[in-house]
Amino acid sequence: MFVAIRDAFLTPMYGFRNIDDGLKELGLKHIELHIDRNMNTILGNISDKTSLSKVKNFLVSNDIEVCAVLLDNDFAGDAASEIKYIAKACEVAHELNCSVVRINAFMRVIHPFTMKEYVDKTVEYVRRCLDFTKDYNVSFAMENHGYISNDRDFIREVVDEVSSERFGLTLDTGNFYWYGYPLNELYDIYREIAPHVKHTHIKNFVVEEGFKEKRRLGLGVGRIQGAPLYEGDINIKEVVKILHSAGYNYDLTLEDESLYRFDNKLWKEVIKKDIEHLKDALSAVHKRI
Largest CB tally within 10 Å, which of 17, 141, 217, 288? Predict the structure, then answer.
C-alpha cells in the first residue's frame, strides 16, 4: 500500500504552490486526478491527444503517478452520455498508466425506483462500461457515495451480479458513517467489502455523544461533522489493518472533509498531520509483517 492525495488539495487554496511542490513537501508521488465531463483537469484540458501528451509529459518529468481517475458521473442522468464520459475517461486513464477509474452509481433518488431497480440499472450500466472499455487494462471502482450506494445490500448485490475482475469498489471510510451506520458496525462492513476494494478515499467524521452507536438517517439524526483523520471517531489504523489482511495493496488516498471547521491558514498543517497519520498507519502494518 501507499499514501496518495486528491489533486484538489495540492493548490494555493490549501497552502501549496502547485501539485509537484505539494507532493514533494508531503513526501508523496501519487495523486487521484479529477476529470470533469469536458475533460478538464487540474493540469489542463485533455480532450485531444496533444493536450493529453503535455499532461503525461508533466507527470513523467516530475515523477508523479496517477493512482486513480475521479469522475462526476451519475447514472441518474442520461445513460448514454454518462457511459460515453466514463469510457472516454477510461481511455485517458489507460494513456496515463492509471489502472483505476472511480465511478458513482446513482447520486439522486429517483421516485418511484425500488432498490432492486437501482441495482439492476447499475449492473446494466457497469456492464456496458466494461464492454466499451474491454481493450484497456483499467478497472472501475464504484464508491459508497450518496443515499443509494452507501446501502450495504445495494453494494453487495451490484458486486455479486457484475462479477468481473475489472469491477470493484472505492472504499470511502467516512461515507458509511455519514449515511447512518453505527460506529461499531462500520468495521464489519469494511471487512465484508475489503476483498473488492480497488481504491480508497480515507476520511473521518465525528458524531455527537449519544448517537455514535445508533442507526441514524444520514444527517437527520445525531449531529455529524467532518474530522481530521487523527481526531475522528473512526479508527483509521484499524481500517488499514483490515484492508491489508484482505490482501489490498494499493492506494490510501486522503480526502479530508473537515477543513471547513478550521481557519484556512491552518488547512495545510491539518493536511500534513493527516498524511503523517496515514503513513503511521501504513508503517504499523508493515511492522506486523
Answer: 141
